[in-house]
Design brief:
Chains A, B: This is Isoprenyl synthetase. Chains A, B: Belongs to the FPP/GGPP synthase family. Chains A, B: Keywords: Magnesium, Metal-binding, Transferase. Chains A, B: One of its GO terms (molecular function) is prenyltransferase activity. Two copies of one chain form a homodimer. With 321 residues, chain A is mainly α. Chain A has helices spanning 3-16, 24-35, 41-51, 61-81, 93-96, 99-117, 125-150, 157-182, 187-214, 217-220, 226-229, 235-242, 249-255, 261-275, 277-298, 303-318; strands at residues 86-87, 90-91. The first copy, chain A, has a two-stranded antiparallel ribbon with strand order 1-2. The radius of gyration of chain A is 20 Å and the shape is globular. Chain A is built from 16 helices and two strands. In chain A, 74% of the residues lie in helices and 1% in strands. Chain A binds chain B through residues 20, 22-23, 25-26, 77, 80-81, 100-101, 103-104, 106-108, 110-112, 114-115, 118, 125-126, 129-130, 133, 136-137, 140-141, 143-145, 147-148, and chain B through 20, 22-23, 25-26, 77, 80-81, 99-101, 103-104, 106-108, 110-112, 114-115, 118, 125-126, 129-130, 133, 136-137, 140-141, 143-145, 147-148.
């Protein structure tokens, strides 16, 4: 069994799923956003976790899709809030249609996620639902924290980790948990998988912060330094500010209103390099991934079942896109 | 047992329910909107329906609250789309905070509705969830249809009834259905209650359309003729257009861009009066309510249990606010 097989079957299910028909302004944006692709890593995690314990992994397709649809719902609404023109290189829903369509179509998408979730196998659906509710609320809390940070002068490393944990990691944790719960695993095992997902998730986001600055623009598929241009309070930026004197060159670039984007990116990267920020970020990221890897090793499942989850985590750790 | 008792206990539950704490931008708007009041008729319907069959009606409080929280979630997002400055005479959430807060806080509110729903009693929660999903999607479909109608030249009476059925009535139907399902009633009884709610719901919305034109501004709590000023395609307007010649005085007032609001309201009401629109609307409304009343009479429950639901429907029918 290889990751590609999960993704192929999953993609087919996503392509043929009927979200609804009329009015078309409500359902076409869902199909559009879902068709733009993405790594599908959250549903892959659910399938892998279920398959650690049960052979019939196709039974976990619907809950896996629930996680992916939920994730894309958050993207549709976040893109309105961020006024983002592009998503995966294509116009965002609020740009292609309009704001109201993006709000309402997103709402229906959240409802669709619950409908898919209701198809979860296993005997304790109410616990699955309550855990999904908690996770969904936390993702919104993370998004609100992120927006609040943008208006603040300073953010501590601890606050930043808490924000990305809520905004990104808990959903990766839940994706694994959902697979284990759907397979009827006991709380102890469910919690092990959740913790693995949360640790991989924090590592995943730190990797994203690093790739924004040090990635290969062709492979990463985004312009390098976007976070720097926008003064986004990433782990790298916060650490660099922590290591800078008051009123440093970095502060100057952050305050600058009139600048050439490429010049600012270049200058900030030089400051990062002088302060050794890349190595510090990679250290913090590696620590999170290692916690995840340790969690995977501790799982009491046959070695051949573990291999695919470990391989997936290794890919997340080493990815350059 | 009187309606006031339900509403008193319900209000107390709503006042003390914890939606969440941090970040406060996410949860304060929920508490704010819920504190603005409203008739609470949807949760009252759930409690009444449950109480038709079971004594311990307090057990249906959480699902009843789910319906009310869901309804208020739709108001929070609809108010953004309608760019409404006021809700129940107070600033809307997007005015008091901002658009992004209203989007995200609304999202969490929908999640909170699912969390409350998960506390429904009864042995078939998955069916309750699936029916709630369907209803929630329909309410969004109705809202999208309503927005589409605003951009259209003509709307038929049939299309209008379909729109208000989705936007308003299915949730009243579901509120009653939810009470019956929570009380473990068979599908036949569940469907009877759903149909009663849908018919009362259409009647309720037609009453709203009538009160906007013919209500007492003091009792109704809104300025009279708001729908007329905005050219809203209500049942009355559509019927009047149907009965008017091409390029009539009504068409003139609809096209007018520069007008004194009170003059337009007065003129359109005179057109309505000349065409007998009020009587036609009251006829259509009465027909819907009568279907609802007939449904209530057919319910096989002890007379004394029926009385409160009948009384409530009579109040909806006769209300002047």
């Amino acid at each position: 069994m290889a990751l590609e097989k999960y993704l192929e079957v999953l993609q087919n299910e996503l392509d043929t799923y009927q979200y609804g028909e009329k009015p078309k302004e409500l359902y076409e944006p869902i199909e559009y956003l879902m068709s733009l692709g993405g790594k599908r890593l959250r549903p892959a995690l659910t399938l892998m976790a279920y398959h650690l314990f049960e052979d019939d992994w196709q039974k976990a397709l619907k809950p896996a899709m629930a996680v992916e649809v939920f994730h894309n719902f958050t993207l549709m609404h976040d893109d309105i809030m961020d006024e983002a023109p592009l998503r995966r290189g294509q116009p965002t829903v609020h740009e292609k249609w309009n704001r109201d369509v993006a709000i309402l179509s997103g709402d229906v998408m959240l409802v669709a996620a619950y409908e898919l979730l209701s198809e979860s196998p296993g005997n304790d659906f109410k616990t699955i639902l309550k855990r999904f509710n908690r996770t969904a609320a936390e993702v919104c809390e993370g998004q609100q924290m992120d927006m609040n940070f943008a208006d603040r002068e300073t953010v501590t490393e601890e606050e930043y980790i808490e924000m990305i944990k809520l905004k990104t990691s808990v959903l990766l944790g839940f994706a694994l948990e959902l697979g284990a719960r759907s397979a009827g695993q006991p709380e102890e095992v469910v919690n092990q998988l959740y913790e693995i997902g949360v640790n991989l998730g924090i590592g995943f986001q730190l990797k994203d912060d690093i790739l924004d600055v040090y990635g290969d623009p062709i492979k990463f598929g985004k312009q390098i330094g976007g976070d720097i241009i926008e003064n986004k309070k990433t782990w790298l930026m916060l650490k660099a500010l922590e290591k800078s004197e008051a009123d440093s060159a970095l502060h100057h670039w952050i305050r600058a209103e009139d600048f050439e984007p490429q010049k600012k990116v270049q200058a900030v990267i030089e400051i990062y390099n002088a302060l050794g920020i890349k190595e510090l970020a990679e250290g913090a990221m590696t620590k999170c991934f290692n916690k995840g890897f340790e969690g995977i090793e501790k799982l009491e499942v046959p070695e051949e079942r573990k291999a695919i989850l470990r391989g997936f985590a290794e890919w997340l750790f080493g990815r350059d896109r």
